[in-house]
Specification:
Strand order of the largest sheet: 1-2-3-5-4
Strand content: 15-25%
Order of helices and strands: HHHHEEEEE
Length: 143
């Protein structure tokens, strides 16, 4: 019975740490510890097997799920932060083509840009979309 309490305390501490850090590491340790707790509650499973099982599950989750979970959780945050930039106009600082990212200065910030067409410095462009931390731009027609 004491081992069940120890596993529960490990789960609780891991979740508290995750609450304050949100790095998606401690939560997977809690998942692994839950496996250890279940094995302990079932009975007849040695402490070594419980610990090894907990470590294997936690490590598998960290290596296999964490990257996708972070991407899924953060997919909207970048777009929301930069969303007001869509439709803004700027002047190219560095040349942009299909092999090289260019740069613009927009709202006092230097941004990496890309485009479907080649663009040279001092051309006026409009931001049409956002891909991560890069802005997709197009030439402003008639200028």
């Amino acid at each position: 019975m004491d081992l069940i309490i120890i596993w529960a305390v490990i789960i609780a501490i891991s979740l508290i740490i995750e609450f304050f850090t949100f790095e998606l590491i401690s939560v997977w340790i809690a998942v692994g510890s839950l496996v250890g707790l279940i094995l302990c509650a079932v009975g007849g499973v040695s402490l070594e097997v419980q610990i090894i099982s907990a470590l294997v599950v936690a490590l598998a989750c960290i290596l296999g799920i964490r990257k996708f979970a972070l991407k899924w959780l953060n997919k909207n945050s970048e777009a929301k932060n930069a969303e007001p930039l869509i439709g803004k106009k700027a002047r190219i600082i560095e040349v942009c083509n299909d092999k090289k990212l260019g740069t613009i200065k927009l709202n006092g910030v230097i941004w990496s840009i890309f485009s479907d067409t080649e663009m040279s410095a001092n051309e006026d462009v409009e931001v049409i979309s956002i891909n991560g931390n890069k802005l997709k731009v197009k030439k402003i027609k008639g200028e």
